[in-house]
Amino acid sequence: xxxxxxxxxxxxxxxxxxxxxxxxxxxxxxxxxxxxxxxxxxxxxxxxxxxxxxxxxxxxxxxxxxxxxxxxxxxxxxxx
Length: 80
Hints:
Radius of gyration: 13 Å
Helix content: 10-25%
Largest sheet: 2 strands, parallel
Number of domains: 1
Order of helices and strands: EHEH
């Protein structure tokens, strides 16, 4: 998750890394997934609403490394 993304300003986050790297998203995949699930009801600018659960509390678990890989253990730990 890009923790500084303007569409998520003033939102509460619970974050945890399961791969030994900081949660901050370096390739955009986590930010895209979280945006689809719980993006804002009224994004900044002229972008239309794109999230479904716009009022939800966000739990961001980093289960892939910055290079986009995983041994599988991180994904399982994140699910648990």
